[in-house]
């Protein structure tokens, strides 16, 4: 009789045990508990299994009871089955059935969502960071590469490697964008700062982080760095003091900074936005401009909604805006509400890190700088889940080429050739201009291998300089001859204008026969005003400052010669106050009637209308040029040299 009572008592214990696990705050079991509550089919299966086991237990109990009754007539000691069961406490059965219940619920969990959060394209491979989660929002592990396929545009690619991100050696570059307007004040703001400090303290050795603030203006408080102390000091200095909220401008700045490329920076990126989602910047950057910028290839935005706004409609409008930016970028919106900010930031960090790193073989893709859709599809178990993101496929940068000689360097090249007396390698090495970003060392004459290498490196510019020199000499001879003939013709010309007209007509055919394109196209013969050529028109490029560092300032740059933008004092436009600008950052060049902008291998890249410049690109009137934190509106006007 006691045995039947102990077995029957197991049923209420299992129910209470399940309830206690569901309500627990333990991180280890919280995910299983959520699965148990939300996955009804799994719970039903588990309860069916439990019911079956309980029925069998009752049958065994009745059988043992009958056996024990029979044994009591023949023996005074306890039966084997009674001893075996009575030796186990009821908590054993409770724990056993709870584990069976939870394992049953977790075992049938299957993927219900695939999200591509970031795409990085570097020829010949494309890397996609993909989240796979179940109905409860929990990460699904154990996905095999064979279950995942991908396309890049119209090209079908294979997934050459699929690795859980925590198992890689990669870090994450986190950029925190914090709203310092008065919409988040008091204890709430201090809680947010504490949560940020905890995140920074938990950074892994391969991680980096940066911090920008936005209110009445957008400020970079800390560039991407692994220095935790510097980051925590920047967080400690935060205070909600501003009256306005330049949310959209902050997103544009954050997207630019998050796409920096430099040696040592992690490839995996995340923009963590802490705000109420309300933009208060009349005439500033619009939401559509931010969304268009995201379409050019973005980093995921993990928006955490903090709001002290009492108006419900206004609060919901802010969260809606944050959600739109987050979804478009491949990120996530977390409504912190009135809850603990630390929990919201912990959830965002988990979402950033718990993804798969899918490496796609894109050797057959078209790498032409155009935008293509990267679509990732997960199949299996009767399901097909898919998500994608646009990315530009820029070709791998070509080897740096030496610049052609300019008009100023040709006389020096002539003098160098005359002094070299047949030294084929020294003259080009000493006098030829070197491509930006290179600094070749002079080869020792005692090392023939280095001399051969230098000759192979410089034979093309040396040949070009020789050809340019020859063309210049021929042009000078032709011009002298024509000037002499014009002088002789002027002495014989009649004094009256009517008599002079035929003379002009007679010389016109010779002017037409002159190879006019040569002086314009050849850099060595640009603007030969010293020999009587008409002056070449000058293109005036006006750069009007749009950022806080130079707002309203107008810089007029005359081309040619080329204009170099950077921090160095010898640059045409020197920007020493912008610490994100490289020494020699970008160059403006006049090519025919077009003005081209080119990046000079800068650390933080050059952006034209929000798109990184990877090759010389023509400027148009009204374009927006950004280098570092400095942003300019481009205006083009034609002028002439006197």
Descriptive notes:
The protein is globular and about 90 Å long. Among the domains are: 113-167 and 362-393; 172-354, 3-Layer(aba) Sandwich (Rossmann fold); 539-638, Sandwich (Tumour Suppressor Smad4), CATH 2.60.200.20. The model is unreliable at 1-51, 69-85, 101-108, 406-452 and 490-533 (pLDDT under 50). 40% of the residues lie in helices and 24% in strands. The strands form 4 sheets. Strands 1-2-11-4-3-12-13 form a 7-stranded antiparallel beta sheet, with no helix packed on it. The chain is built from 17 helices and 24 strands. It has 642 residues and is of the alpha+beta class.
What are the key terms here?
Cell_Proc_Reg/RNA_Proc, Rossmann fold, Tumour Suppressor Smad4, single chain, membrane, 17 helices, VWA domain-containing protein, 40% helix, alpha+beta, six-stranded mixed beta sheet, 642 residues, seven-stranded antiparallel beta sheet, transmembrane helix, disordered N terminus, 24 strands
Quantity of strands, as a count: 24
CATH class of the domain at 172-354: Alpha Beta
Shape: globular
Counting H and I runs of at least 4 residues, what is the number of helices? 17
Distance linking N and C termini: 117 Å
- Taking all Cα atoms into account, the compactness measure Rg is 37 Å
Determine the mean pLDDT: 74
CATH architecture label of the domain at 172-354: 3-Layer(aba) Sandwich
Q: In CATH, what is the homologous superfamily of the domain at 172-354?
A: von Willebrand factor, type A domain
Helix content: 25-40%
- Approximately what portion of the residues adopt beta-strand conformation? 15-25%
């Amino acid at each position: 009789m006691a045995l039947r009572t102990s077995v029957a008592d197991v049923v209420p214990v299992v129910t209470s045990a399940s309830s206690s696990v569901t309500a627990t705050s333990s991180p280890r079991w919280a995910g299983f508990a959520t699965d148990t509550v939300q996955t009804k089919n799994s719970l039903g299966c588990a309860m069916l299994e439990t019911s079956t086991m309980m029925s069998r237990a009752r049958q065994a109990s009745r059988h043992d009871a009958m056996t024990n009754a029979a044994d009591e007539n023949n023996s005074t000691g306890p039966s084997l089955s009674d001893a075996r069961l009575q030796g186990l406490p009821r908590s054993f059965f409770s724990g056993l059935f709870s584990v069976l219940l939870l394992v049953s619920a977790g075992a049938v969990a299957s993927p219900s969502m695939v999200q591509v959060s970031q795409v990085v394209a570097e020829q010949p491979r494309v890397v996609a960071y993909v989240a796979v989660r179940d109905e409860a929002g929990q990460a699904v592990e154990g996905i095999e590469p064979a279950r995942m396929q991908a396309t890049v545009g119209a090209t079908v690619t294979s997934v050459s490697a699929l690795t859980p991100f925590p198992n890689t050696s990669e870090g994450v570059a986190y950029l925190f964008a914090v709203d310092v307007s008065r919409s988040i004040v008091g204890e709430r703001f201090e809680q947010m700062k504490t949560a940020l400090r905890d995140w920074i303290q938990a950074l892994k050795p391969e991680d980096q982080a940066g911090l920008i603030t936005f209110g009445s203006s957008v400020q970079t408080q800390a560039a991407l760095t692994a220095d935790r102390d510097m980051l925590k000091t920047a967080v400690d200095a935060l205070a909600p003091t501003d009256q306005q909220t330049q949310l959209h401008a902050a997103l544009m700045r954050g997207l630019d900074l998050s796409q920096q490329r430099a040696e040592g920076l992690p490839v995996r990126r995340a923009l963590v936005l802490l705000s109420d989602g309300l933009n208060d910047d009349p005439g500033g950057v619009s939401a559509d401009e931010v969304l268009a910028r995201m379409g050019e290839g973005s980093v995921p935005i993990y928006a955490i909604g903090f709001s002290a706004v009492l108006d419900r409609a206004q609060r919901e409008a802010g969260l809606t805006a944050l959600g739109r930016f987050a979804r478009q970028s491949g990120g996530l919106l977390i409504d912190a509400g009135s809850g603990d900010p630390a929990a919201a930031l912990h959830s965002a960090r988990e979402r950033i890190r718990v993804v798969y790193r899918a490496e796609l073989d894109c050797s057959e893709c078209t790498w032409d700088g155009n935008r293509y859709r990267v679509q990732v599809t997960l199949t299996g178990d009767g399901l097909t889940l898919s998500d994608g993101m646009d990315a530009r496929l820029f070709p791998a940068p070509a080897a740096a080429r030496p610049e052609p000689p300019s008009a100023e360097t040709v006389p020096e090249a002539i003098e160098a050739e005359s002094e070299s007396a047949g030294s084929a390698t020294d003259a080009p090495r000493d006098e030829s201009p070197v491509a930006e970003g290179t600094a070749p060392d002079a080869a020792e004459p005692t090392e023939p291998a280095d001399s051969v290498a230098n000759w192979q490196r410089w034979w093309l510019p040396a040949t070009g300089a020789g050809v340019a020199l020859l063309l210049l000499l021929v042009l000078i001879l032709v011009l002298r001859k024509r000037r002499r003939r014009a002088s002789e013709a002027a002495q014989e010309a009649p004094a009256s204008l009517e008599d002079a007209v035929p003379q002009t007509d007679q010389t016109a055919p010779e002017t037409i026969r002159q190879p006019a394109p040569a002086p314009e196209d050849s850099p060595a013969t640009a603007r030969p005003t010293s020999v009587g050529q008409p002056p070449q028109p000058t293109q005036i490029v006006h750069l009007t400052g749009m950022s806080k560092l130079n707002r309203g300032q107008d810089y007029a740059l005359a081309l040619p010669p080329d204009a170099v933008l950077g921090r160095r004092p010898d640059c045409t436009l020197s920007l020493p106050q912008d610490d994100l600008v490289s020494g020699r950052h970008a160059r403006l060049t006049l090519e025919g009637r077009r003005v081209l902008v080119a990046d000079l291998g800068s650390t933080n890249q050059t952006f034209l209308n929000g798109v990184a410049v990877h090759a010389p690109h023509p400027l148009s009137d009204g374009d927006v040029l950004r280098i570092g934190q400095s942003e300019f509106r481009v205006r083009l006007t034609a002028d002439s040299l006197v």
